[in-house]
Design goal:
The protein is mainly alpha-helical and about 700 residues long. The protein contains 29 helices and seven strands.
Length: about 700
């Protein structure tokens, strides 16, 4: 009986105990367990030295933290917009939190005193003083954070998005960052990190978004669209009434569009496909560089893929821009040779080229930094877009003076424009060579050979005396800071180091003007053509392998000088040989593929694509809300998308702005007819004006078209 009573009592006690353990509502948690992290954070904040002017900030921070402890909605909303840094050891350096949650506070209008600001804190965890492969797996993690891989991947910096009260000044926010960092797993490992703050974004602050520049840029776009539509309608229904109407005819949309698909007997078909592929490679290169510069979540994977997948070879795609310099020289000389190198006005050639280059640049710069200014908003806007915008505000005139490529990297407005300045400067050289050639063939050839030798000797001399500064590093040094590593390379942008590829184009243009492909088709046998192409492809691959080896392993001063002085000439030589094999040889498939009619309009628009794609990539980077990821498939897909969208925008720029203004420039450079010389017969006059426009478009865009 006693044993039964004891069993019943024991069963009741056990059931009560189990019931209490399975019902969290009946358990009152220890306050230390529930609030330990927040209490520690409050104590850490209070232990710091706060000035009198910071009292309001400290009070607001304490108010937020206490309300988070009490699970108050408004405070939890603010705290929920932040995240603890994750993935730092895997190379993820950006920890944005939720940018929009911080700045789009639902109760901002009702409770303006609770308004917040989003600040990007940059934290340095100490100097890099060791190699990653020397780090002890069981040692202190700080050694890992201060190490770098052999591809120069580093882990000692991070960016952290912080949502703070709007009453806090940047130095006060830095104290909050320090206190929060000390509560993380990284704060346990690193004792005294260096903290700096970018400009903060204040919730509800939109007064600078729609300014005069914004309204002016889009009003200008609307003006040119309306003018083109009105001019087209007038030409379609009324015709041309007088010679002065040729300027309205310059805006005639069908004729401007017709040029994009027009192919003449003088066009070199394979250049269309080569131009499109070069444009795609440059876009791919820029997207990869800019994306990785921002930082990706899986940098370790990228670091591991460098050698097995030979990714470092793709970092040498920077030579693809020499394709356009090569074509610029080729088209200039071929256009002048079309008239038998008769006496020409070099000043008119240069003025036409200047406006050909600068017209699309002007509208794209205006839209990029004024028209889209309010659209580009994101956590890193102040670190990227705003800095570029400030540089352009101060140095935009350098772009129009065509001296951008001689500016320091930090002073370059819209960095890709260095190649536009370089192109124009080389056009001056090419025009001078051609002009001298018209006066004396002997001195013209001597001028060309002297320039060509100088294009080899000058970079070689610099590389021989400055070996360490001459080679662009194909690793994370380039990916982390492309401006210093690429544009800051002394041999990259200056024209006097870049002339080789342009002069190869000049030589090929002259050669093809003598041996016109129309009269020399298939003079090379099929067997010889195919064998030559195979050899060319092998040499092409070996070129990239050699470039990668020299850049990664280093070499003697002589080898570096030889490589630096010849790499751009070799690249242009590859393009020249490929063009000659397609034009003079008997290759199957390839010539037809490169001359495919679908490439023609895209190649005509490639200059606009080159200028516009950077704006699209910049938008994506500056508007990003979460860390990006390295993935080759996504990279290629994204490049295709950017190329297609850039083509559409480039088509609009060409139709409504670039082609009409180019036509007007050409008309202004022509001798104006005197009033008594104007034809009275309107039919004859109309026909003359139509032919005039067609001839002008042919001269400007077929023979002087760079991209």
């Amino acid at each position: 009986m006693k044993s039964n009573i004891f069993g019943i009592i024991f069963s009741v006690l056990v059931s009560v105990n189990v019931s209490s353990n399975s019902s969290p509502k009946n358990v009152k948690k220890n306050p230390i367990e529930r609030y330990g992290y927040l209490d520690t954070l409050i104590e850490d904040l209070q232990s710091q030295k706060w000035g009198k002017e910071e009292a309001t900030c400290l009070k607001q921070l304490e108010k937020i933290l206490l309300n988070v402890q009490n699970s108050t909605t408004w405070a939890t909303w603010i705290w929920d917009s932040m995240q603890t840094p994750v993935g730092q050891l895997y190379g993820s350096k950006n920890h944005y939190g939720n940018y929009d949650e911080c700045l789009e506070f639902p109760w901002e209008q009702v409770h303006p005193d609770l308004r917040t600001q989003y600040c990007m804190a940059h934290i340095t965890l100490g100097p890099v003083d060791s190699k990653l492969d020397e780090v002890d797996l069981f040692g202190h993690v700080e050694n890992y954070l201060r190490a770098k891989s052999k591809n120069h991947l580093k882990f000692n910096t991070l960016a952290w998005g912080i949502c703070a009260p709007v009453v806090c000044e940047p130095h006060s926010v830095s104290k909050l960052v320090g206190s929060m960092f000390r509560q993380t797993h990284l704060g346990i490992a690193v004792d005294k990190p260096e903290i700096s703050l970018s400009n903060c974004y204040i919730a509800g602050k939109t007064e600078d978004a729609y300014n005069f520049g914004y309204y002016f840029s889009w009003s200008l776009v609307a003006f040119f669209i309306i003018l083109s539509l009105v001019s087209t309608s007038y030409v379609n229904h009324k015709g041309l009434g007088s010679n002065g109407m040729a300027y309205f005819n310059a805006f005639y949309i069908p004729r401007n569009l017709q040029f994009l698909s027009k192919v003449t007997e003088d066009d070199i078909g394979p250049l269309f496909g080569i131009r499109v592929m070069a444009c795609f490679c440059i876009t791919l290169f820029h997207i990869w560089i800019l994306t990785t510069t921002l930082g990706v979540t899986n940098s370790i994977r990228l670091d591991k893929d460098f050698e097995p997948k030979k990714l470092t070879m793709f970092l040498h795609l920077e030579v693809a821009v020499d394709t356009f310099l090569f074509m610029s020289g080729f088209l200039l000389i071929k256009g002048l040779a079309h008239n038998g190198f008769k006496t020409f006005n070099p000043l008119k050639v240069l003025v036409k080229r200047y406006f050909r280059l600068i017209i699309p640049v002007s509208i794209i710069l205006l839209l990029a930094f004024r028209g889209l200014n309010h659209v580009i908003q994101g956590p890193v806007r102040n670190d990227f877009f705003q800095k570029e915008s400030d540089v352009c505000d101060q140095h935009w005139f350098d772009v129009f003076l065509m001296i951008q490529n001689y500016m320091r990297p930090e002073n370059m407005c819209y960095p890709v424009l260095w190649s536009v300045s370089c192109d124009f400067q080389l056009t001056v050289l090419g025009t001078m060579i051609a002009w001298v050639f018209t006066k004396s063939r002997k001195f013209g050839l001597l001028f060309f050979l002297t320039s060509f030798i100088a294009s080899i000797v000058l970079p070689a001399a610099f590389a021989f005396t400055h070996r360490d500064l001459s080679v662009i590093p194909p690793d994370f040094r380039l990916l982390d800071n492309y401006k210093d590593s690429l544009l800051g390379n002394p041999l990259y942008a200056p024209t006097h180091y870049r002339g080789g590829s342009y002069l190869v184009g000049v030589a090929l243009g002259y050669l093809m003007s003598i041996y016109n492909p129309v009269n020399h088709r298939n003079i090379l046998s099929k067997k010889f053509s195919i064998l030559s192409l195979c050899v060319l492809l092998v040499m092409f691959v070996e070129f990239f392998i050699a470039s990668d080896t020299i850049a990664r392993q280093g070499n003697t001063a002589f080898v570096v000088a030889l490589y630096v002085s010849l790499k751009r000439i070799i690249w242009a030589g590859f393009i020249a040989i490929l063009v000659m094999l397609c034009e003079y040889g008997t290759l199957p498939v390839l010539p037809s593929f490169l001359s495919w009619s679908a490439w023609v309009p895209i190649s005509r628009l490639s200059y606009g694509i080159y200028l516009i794609h950077i704006t699209l990539v910049t938008y994506r980077i500056n508007a990003t809300r979460s860390p990006l990821q390295y993935d080759l498939i996504n990279l290629i897909v994204h490049t295709l998308g950017v190329t297609v969208f850039s083509s559409i925008v480039s088509l609009a720029v060409w139709t409504f702005y670039e082609a009409p203004l180019g036509n007007i420039v050409s008309l202004l450079l022509k001798t104006k007819p005197k009033s008594q010389e104007i034809q009275k017969d309107k039919a004859v006059q109309n026909l003359g004006d139509l032919k005039k426009i067609e001839a002008l478009q042919g001269n400007v865009y077929e023979k002087s078209n760079k991209l």
